[in-house]
Design a protein that fits this description.
It contains four helices and no strands. The chain has 125 residues and is an all-alpha fold. It has a domain of 58 residues. The chain starts with 9 loop residues before the first helix and ends in a 13-residue tail after the last helix. This is Putative head portal protein.
Length: 125
Amino acid sequence: MEYQQLGMSNQDAEWLVSRRFTIDDIARMFNVSPIFLQEYSNSTYSNFSEASRAFLTITMRPWLANFEQQIKAALLMTLPKRGIRYQVEFDTADLLRANPKERFQSYETAIKSDVMTTPGSANPV
């Protein structure tokens, strides 16, 4: 019977740790969560949904605001028409939409507090 090593050597373990640090370093450099660089060692579904929201608010919002300002300056401000105002805005509502469980909980709360009514429960006129 021969001895075969089941684990990895110290050198291999150190290499894996350095790869993890590289991913974290790149994530910090571009202001994104490591989840978006396919690093899932510390992630859960709730972490991912929160990271998605944080990605939009922290990383993408400044870029989108910059694009909106540039589009306004380049296209809409060059030939302003009297009485007509145009607005440029990226629609990020779909990215911020909650998961189904959170949505249904908020619907339930809104219905119980009479902020929202169920379809068909309104008084007919």
